[in-house]
Design goal:
The protein is an all-alpha fold. It has 13 helices and no strands. Helices cover about 70% and strands about 0% of the residues. About 50% of the residues are buried. Helix 1 crosses helix 11 and helix 4 runs antiparallel to helix 12.
């Protein structure tokens, strides 16, 4: 049952990345992030009567978890806005490495032979995405629909020089250069590391509290952090973002996914190393979205890398 709940979390997480990308086509990063968090909190307010009874020291750990999420979300939203969703989805798989390390070295979990090979495949997929062997690049750029051997663009989702430019979107920010793309990739990887730390705290905290308690209080801390951020930076939030349906879709999927994950963390026998592998099922959703919804080019190689990672996930849960 806990594996099924984590699978639900992973698939909803992938769908949520699509909603994020769509939402930020209409509103700024911070507008989407703040209102998305506010709506999510309002959706969990009905569970407030069940959120009491925690000892004071637990609030410190929940506050730390919320800081991790607060920074991770800012980094991930900014990176997702600037890089292709299919690339972001595969980069997000790197949290496997961070979370597995925490599970082994801190929680004392052990890996069986299948899980060891699973982790090797996951790592291989990520390394191939990073270093991009030339012969594989040529192969997949040739076979990838809409691309050719003469296409000189890298795996950034950019069009070839013969492509007629599409009309400029509402957001007039120029597309990221290769240098800035590297910066946003680093932000995405940092976000993965922080999310892994948050997941590690979930596993510990859910031994002593209910999913309603953890979800309500960490969302409340998040709201407080964003209010402080707005006051300090004087960030302007236009509340027309409430009319953005993608923000509402994000919030609903987020609350359901988090509830599923917290319940799974509280179940006997659940393991953070296996759970982290299953969570990465969402990358298939993001790569498919990049191909068929956002019409990104050169997704064939990312499918190949993701396929290696998914093979590792299957081995890890066998």
């Amino acid at each position: 049952m806990w594996m099924l709940l984590v699978l639900i979390y992973g698939l909803l997480k992938g769908a949520r990345e699509i909603a994020k990308k769509k939402a930020m086509e209409r509103n700024s990063v911070m507008e989407v992030l703040v209102i998305y968090t506010l709506i999510s909190f309002l959706l969990v307010v009905p569970s407030a009567p069940k959120a009491g009874g925690l000892e004071p020291h637990f609030f410190i750990w929940i506050a730390i978890k919320s800081i991790f999420i607060f920074v991770a979300w800012i980094f991930s939203f900014h990176s997702l806005k600037k890089i292709p969703i299919s690339l972001y989805g595969v980069l997000d798989l790197s949290r496997v490495l961070f979370a597995t390390s925490l599970g082994i070295f801190v929680l004392g979990e052990t890996l069986n032979i299948n899980q060891i090979f699973g982790l090797i495949f996951v790592s291989a997929g990520l390394l191939l995405l990073k270093f991009k062997p030339r012969f594989l690049i040529k192969l997949f750029k040739y076979n990838d629909e809409g691309a050719s051997k003469s296409d000189k663009s890298d795996l950034e989702g950019t069009a070839s020089s013969t492509t007629i430019p599409a009309p400029a979107p509402v957001d007039t920010t120029p597309p990221a250069s290769r240098h800035s793309t590297t910066f946003y990739v680093i932000l995405a990887l940092t976000s993965c590391m922080l999310n892994a730390g948050s997941g590690f705290l979930d596993k510990i905290l859910m031994q002593d509290m209910t999913s309603s308690q953890l979800q309500f209080w960490y969302m409340l801390f998040l709201i407080c952090y964003y209010l402080l951020y707005i006051l300090i930076t004087r960030e302007k939030i236009h509340f027309t973002v409430f009319k953005n349906p993608w923000v509402w879709a994000m919030a609903i999927m987020f609350v359901i996914a988090d509830k599923s994950l917290f319940i799974a963390n509280g179940m006997e026998g659940s393991r953070i190393t296996v759970m982290t592998l299953i969570k990465q099922s969402g990358c298939i959703v993001t790569i498919l979205a990049g191909r068929f919804i956002f019409k990104e080019k050169n997704t064939g190689y990312r499918f190949f890398c993701a396929g290696i990672v998914i093979l590792g996930i299957v081995l890890g849960v066998m």
